[in-house]
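Ticket #4471: structure export looks truncated?
Reporter: QA, pipeline team
Priority: medium

Steps to reproduce: submit the single chain below to the structure queue and open the exported record.
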Amino acid sequence: MGVGDQVDPVQISTFTVGLLPTYGQVGIAAPIMLVILRMLQGVSAAGEQAGANSMALEHAPSHRRAFFTSFTLSGTQAGLILATLVFLPISALPEDQLMSWGWRIPFFLSAIVVWVGIWVRRALPETPAFEQEKSQAQGEKEAKLPVMVLLREHKKSLARVIFAAQISVVSTIFSVFTLSYAVNTIHIPRATMLTVLVLANVVAQAAIPAFAALSDRIGRKPVFIFGGLACACLIWPYLWSISQANIPLIFVFGLLLSGVVYSAANGVWPSLYGEMFDTRVRLSGMAIGTQIGFALGGFAPTISASTCKLSAFAADLVKGLYQIGQRLLASCCIRRACSQRLQSMVDGFVEEVPIGCGTRFQPGFGRIPG
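Actual output as written to the record:
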């Protein structure tokens, strides 16, 4: 899993963004360097998130895998809260100061995260499941090329993860497009929308482990599908409340959408996706599948922004239908993921545990029919 790496490129590239020269200083080289650093961030983050999910999943007791693995997403939400809180006072700077030097401050503060990351990596052991798989590897070539095994034996699971990862469009729209749309088009104060983001992430801190614990009892699929369908129902009211500049409804629908129902899918996918792959390819399968899906979902703000020339109702309708389609796609893909199996270490031996819907956990014995 490579936990021995001391410094991850995502940490270095984030700090380096704050050091970038301006367009006035180096011309076109400035945006080119920014794009390169952002690409490095994205590639590195893929391994970071998937690695954290895999390690949490393989260390967790069999009857509480979703609950323990969900804390990798809780950590992500906590990072979003911290980043937004850091930016709130900076956003209050005069526009010229914000654009000239103020925006660099959060990137410089990421040096603290670099130090924490180094400390964690030095103390983190590999999982028993990974160590056993490594010791039992049949061939060195196969062990070094997990991607080939993934593409040969897990194509369907990989495709499901790619399409199910479209659920992330909720986060992209909520944190990127609606912020820009509300502030620049509807002229809602930036501080108001940032407050919605912070409060939604605070609510998610409780909702994510709660939904994950529920999935440990009733199965991953019902909880994930509920999250996808509920997001499809709430995205249009949230966009409409922004277009009407109705601040109370923005808070209500924003907290329900991003804080509550999106947390159902968000709290379950780290364990759900991981359980679709065996130990040999779990990290590769999660990293490749989610990042391709996230990349496809990254076009959502551009697609949504292209509707702004339509009438207010038509624009909200098109954006809402697009979001609903993405949620239904993710839910349908997970609806088909019913017969995978997870291999994990439990009390020193390897246990095969079926996953899917219609099952429940019996503590100490994994899943049994329910």
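Status: closed, not a bug. The export was complete when the record was re-opened. Leaving a note from the reviewer for reference: The beta strands are 341-346, 349-354, 359-361, 367-369.
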